[in-house]
Here is the input.
Amino acid sequence: MVLTIDLPDDVEQRIRAQNPGLESQAREIILVDLYRRGQLTHHALSQALRLDRFETEEVLHKHKVTEDLGTLEEHLAEVRAVQELRTSGC
Here is the structure.
């Protein structure tokens, strides 16, 4: 996919002067945002970034994206559900 952002020449020059590697930065930001919104899996993000699993974790950490591990109440509800299954003989 090729994405084009149309900017006035002076703005583009200023941005490029301050941000070497701008294309790769923009690509990373867009892909991480898609992951954050649940539109990419971790595996798909790794493939798109051309990184291994651990390097992808570093990128997510850099962008302050953490896995949603749920609340304590949600975990306790899961424990209760498993306990109920065990006592019911399933």
